[in-house]
## 1
Amino acid sequence: MCGIVGYIGPRDATPIILNGLKRLEYRGYDSAGLAVLQAGKIEVRRDAGKLSRLTELVQETPVSGSPGIGHTRWATHGAPNARNAHPHLGSTKRVVVVHNGIVENFLELRDELTAEGVKFSSETDTETIVHLVEHHIASGLDLTEAARRTFLQIQGAHGIVLLSADEPDKIVCARIGNAGGVVIGLGEGENFIASDIPAILEHTRRVIFLESRQMAVVTRDTVQVETLDGMAIQPQVHSVAWDAVSAEKGEYRHFMQKEIHEQVRSLTDTLAGRVDFNAGRIRLPELNLTPGLARKIEKIYLTACGTAAYAGMVGKILIEKIARIPCALEIGSEFRYSDPIIDENTIVLAISQSGETADTLAAMEEGRKKGTRLWSIVNAIGSQAMRIADGYISMQTGPEIGVASTKAFTAPLVDLYMLAVLLADLRGGIDEKTRRALVADLRLIPALAGKVLSRDAEIEKIAYTLKDIRDCLYLGRGINMPIAYEGALKLKEISYIHAEGYPAGEMKHGPIALIDENMPVVCLAPKDPWHEKMISQIQQAKARGGMVIAVATEGDELVASLADHVLWVPETPWMLSPVVTVIPLQMLAYHIAAIRGLDVDQPRNLAKSVTVE
Ligand code: G6P
């Protein structure tokens, strides 16, 4: 889950790599480095810490030339220090590598290389790659063939980029398994390589995605793609619609703040082209869903990780309620161990912002193995989860950079709602009036989100009163129960305050023991079918001296009279209410973390896309 950038062409690679890494820093930020071919020699600059440290280093000891490769790291093997930072040079200092993934057989390979006299200068698994390549070059192979031989020797999932001072006209890269993507950006007389599209968007929108077990030899003017076994591939060139501007912070202090406030637009975009308000119908063409298939479906397994899994929990409720199809939500990392009972009438529906989360992809693979149909709801265009699915829904929210997911949570909620209505319609399980009413409700959503966002200053004020808390409990019921989980996740991720989400009805079976004046309790109590139950929950928390922060529907005097603070939301049809109730919780978490002076976009130990299991 590291970020990779490469450049070959007439320009100086250094600023291109630094800029590209800046856009990928969300993928990992323990250390960063670059390697550039300067006057026939590979010059490496790398250090522990964030990218700003690498930028300083390059200012202190400049380097320029082409080709060049760069890396921002999320440590797996070896501490995040300068020695372990990528790129890694081989013993001859003529070959250099950056890598995303884990060489699973690295101990064995390192022992073999050490026995041959190779000296390792880091604790990383990555270093084995460059030594193996050098070993094969020493036996007479060129860079491409030496790289191929190496790719076949290493186990695990990888994105790898290599260059050699002795073959300065090329960069060799490969993708093996699901350690994250390798994207080749096509320019005029220059080419780019990256782990993710945002790194190269300012240069080109024409891209090639490497599939698993494919490698490419990239020169200034050509891109030659082959399988690791040497079979030539005619790659498909994709046009990416995202523009570089949408990956900029603009007037906002943090990407997370920008992305929270983008939700009016992202929700509008999510609906665009999908909803026919006149006919009261939904269209999701990329899902390839026919009435025949819709009628055959007996069960849907939703699978995802992190925030996306909480979207899946809401999705389960929506699909069961609207389409009456039994659903199960299985966390991505558990799916394949649960020996799921699936067949050709089961759908495995993966939800993923990045489309590259290793555990989610592993769940999809398990589904594939068992002969089921795969669907995905994905944000990153061209990502693995999109490509391997039989049908997909694209989130249409544009790039999300902040590590804590916000707009890529609300978009799939709407996608899942639309999917539920479409399934119900195609199965003939919904009367026209109900269908039209459900579709019409979608029209309200962007404006309702906008109403919550306009309360930013109020929410910031409440955040000031909570900035020093040590724990926080979030309670919700029914369709807003997953929002309690998501609210707690947002707070813990970026403010490092211990926070727990709980089904409100379970409070009396344990968490109530924790409630006293030091335990704030966030209660999701909008006007939904569980409103009265939540009122009694608030009363119970108050009776134990807890401070209650309620998410309540505008005008709800009863909740206002009971709670210490209220996060107001506009009245919303209950099946869409999670889209609206989560936003004040995103804003609350954001403000608390920003007031505490924390690095909101790059919280410690986390990464945006987790491409390791
Ligand atoms: C990481 C991110 C989370 C995200 C999760 C799943 O943990 O920090 O924000 O929800 O991965 O990512 P995905 O890209 O599959 O939605």
Note: The chain is about 35% helix and 25% strand.
## 2
Amino acid sequence: MPVPAAALVAVAEPRRAAARGNGTAALYTGVPRVRVAVEEGGADETDLLAARVRLLEGFVARAELSDCTQLALQWLAEVLHLTQSICLIRPEAEQVLYVIGSYGIAGSGIASYTISLEDWNNPLVPAFIHRKAMFFPAPHSAADRRRRPSTPFEDLPFHAVPLGVSGFDEDAFGLLLVGDTRPLDADFHWFASVLGQRIDQILRQQALTEGDRRQGRERSLLYSIINAVTDPILLTDTEGRLLIANARALTLFTASEEESEGRRGAVRMNNMLLSSALSSKAIEETAATRRELLLVNPVDGSDLVFELLSTVTEDPRQGSGVVSILRNVTDLRRASEEIEDNYRKMRIAEVQARAESDRLNLIIDSVADPIVVTDAGGATSLMNEPSERLFTIPMYASEIEQRWVQTNDAHFSSFIAGMLVSADQRRVGEIGLVDPKTGEAMPVEAIAGKILSEHGELTAVVTILHDRREAIEKARLYEQLKQASDELERKIQAATADIAQQNELLRRQAIELEQASALKSQFLANMSHEFRTPLNAMLGYTSMLLQGVAGAVEPAVKRQLARIESNGRHLLTIINEILDISRIEAGRMPLQLSTFRVPDLVGEVKAELEPIILRSKLAITLDLPKDLKPITSDRQKVKQILLNLLTNALKFTHHGGVTIAARLAARDRRLSLSVTDTGIGIAPADQERVFEDFRQLDNSPTRAYGGTGLGLSICRRLAQMLDGEITVQSQVAKGSTFTLTLPTKGRK
Ligand code: ADP
């Protein structure tokens, strides 16, 4: 839009100017303010010179690009009367021209006006690129209008003048658009040249300070990067002097005067070690090399092992240097030692684990029952030999054998599947397997247990199978046995009942017998007594006749009388013996215990039998211990036994002698009295029979010895009453020994 000329005379109003670069809008203050009286006809030379000086002074006083531009455009309007102008600048590295100042053009759109340098259809672009001033007259036709660039001048004629540093073969950096039809004169060119120089100056200064700032920023960034690295990083010159070091390197290689002597010593030592490492490095080729460097930790004096990585750098300004990076491998070394140690331990553990597993396998194999270990997925991971026989198909197996194994496998798998889905830790079940050799049914008891890891995860299932055939067979046999035993028991019960009945019968018979025997004994006792009384009377009278009480008796009569007496005595003996037996059996022979001396008793017995002894002409020997203590027993009964034994010995002995001996036995608690003869002896078969009632070994009518056969039988009964016994040892034609053994302290 054209601006009225009158308005241009006015003092430049404060207005907004776009300042590219910092992005903020700066307020144009117009300092110093210039009020120029504009008169028709122009200023004279002096005025012009003064105006030029003023412009240059204004430039000196302003450092800001927009300030300088604004002053210049105002000067252009006031001094050279070019009242409409726009100044554009191309920032570095951009392909666009932006407005940095304008004069005499109204509208807010001016600030956003730009020229793209990539738009070659815009005629202003070649004008800028080739630094060539151009004039665009007002258009006369639509075609003219199309050829003109689009500018805030719209259809008004204007000049486009590139801004640059004259005399240098450099690119233009700005474009000045001036709305006017007049050709531009030398004053304008002077103006364009000083404005160009001033803008160039400001741009250069800006670029310079921007560059410095960027470099500073980059440097501090670099420092913070290398300081952030925990590995020491150093740059040394060819003499080994430290040029740059990061914080970690400084703690290793530098120490101030205030620090302890120990720390400074460590730092000196480290510098020595480093420079020797780097000097030896220098004789090697320049390629980066790695090696170990042992340093001292200045903080605590401990050893630090570093890996030294150094590279020679060539800097055109600084000369060559060595960049070294030290990597602390102390921990790495320790870690690698630990890893080695752990590896060793792991190997040992592995060997142990293998031994353990071998042992386990050995155990599993030595178990006669099949054992199968399955993993959490139900796949078999281990089985012993008996299991293999059940679940793996042997080589050369027939089709039917293969099928049996497959059946077993299927049954077992379904058992395991059931175990895996159940929550039970342990499960006992029966599986109907088949003997893979014979095909016979093989019921097995399966006991399965889950093995859990320490986190409670299922790791395996161990199943032990137990062939139940033997148990079933045993159970069957047991059942049979039980039946047989029940049958037997029934029979025994029946027989027992029978026996009980018979026992009862016998008991009754025994009672009856006992009663009968008692009656018999009673009868015998009574009868004997009845016999004895008249017999004694007869013997008494016979004795009196023999003694001649009734007058002298003829020798022939005397002999007869003697016979009567002898037979009578014999009869009395028999009756006495029968009476004894009867009394014993009827329990009518009481014990009468007394303490007596055995030698006295023996003497008595011997004395009583003195006539018979004399008649027999046998030698009687007594063998009695001198210190024999008195014994307690029924003296009469012992005497009766001894009398009987001695009588028999004398009766059945024809030559030799008879010995009566006494012996203490069983720690003095039993006494044995024996009568030994050298007589006819008793055959072994008869030795027990002689104790029976009325038993005589020679019972022929022509027998040579008298007697009733009751003597020994009475002796045995008497001995039993005394808690003793009578035994016999004998040899035919050599002799016999009858021994009575009885307790020394009476009955128990
Ligand atoms: P007896 O009154 O007949 O002697 P015993 O009971 O005293 O009855 O003896 C039974 C039998 O034992 C005697 O008839 C005799 O055959 C045999 N007998 C007993 N003592 C002796 C002995 N010392 N030597 C050989 N035989 C004897």
Note: Residues 1-43 have pLDDT under 50 and may be disordered.
